[in-house]
Design brief:
Elements lengths: L12 E3 L8 E4 L2 H11 L3 E14 L2 E15 L6 E16 L23 E5 L3 E3 H12 L9 H8 L10 H12 L1
Parallel strand pairs: 5-6
Antiparallel strand pairs: 1-7, 2-3, 3-4, 4-5
């Protein structure tokens, strides 16, 4: 059995020596988008592009920019597919492995409070890091798992659900009447 991690679907390895100061334009291929859709359990990733700038400070690299994606995902209520456009800012920092919490013992936990301006930090080993995987993770966090499509209200109505909070139907009415009497 191998302990090797699977290769990320949208891998874009950047060597510290490659950082030259101009923005990077990244675009996922058809195969990469299909693999990301499977990973994120959505119907499709129709497009994924990102424009990021890399700012190196020694072995630390700040990454800032934005991603745009068009996805197709199932409605949380009806299960029907519907299109979603995502625009998400990217602001993170790659740091050498072991530099985030070098004094932690294995299994030790700490609580960290982040300020609004703090960047997420991602550790890397060696002399390169994967900016594509960071973009894929940013997309994953931007996908609303409870997104509702255009037919959500009609599906609720058909099922006899008046709102997200209030149950409806004969059983709910009988239970409500019994609770009022008691």
């Amino acid at each position: 059995m191998s302990d090797a991690l699977p290769c990320p679907e949208f891998s874009r390895e950047i060597s510290l020596r490659q950082i030259v100061g101009h923005p990077l334009d990244l675009e996922a291929s058809e195969a990469e988008r299909a693999a990301l859709a499977r990973r994120f359990a959505i119907s499709a990733v129709e497009s994924l592009t990102a424009r990021v700038s890399l700012d190196r400070h020694g072995e630390r690299v700040a990454v800032e920019g934005a991603l745009q994606a068009d996805i197709v995902q199932p409605c949380a209520v009806s299960g029907e597919d519907f299109p979603v456009h995502i625009e998400e800012e990217i602001a993170l920092r790659f740091v050498p492995e072991g530099s985030i919490h070098p004094s932690l013992e294995e299994g030790e936990e700490i609580e960290i409070e982040l300020e609004q301006d703090d960047l997420d930090e991602i550790e890397y080993a060696g002399d390169s890091f994967d900016v594509g995987e960071a973009i894929a993770q940013t997309l994953a966090l931007a996908i609303d798992p409870y997104a509702e499509g255009p037919n959500a209200d009609a599906t609720r109505e058909k099922a006899g659900i008046k709102s997200d909070d209030a149950p409806s139907g004969p059983l709910a009415e009988a239970l409500g009447a019994a609770l009022k009497k008691g």
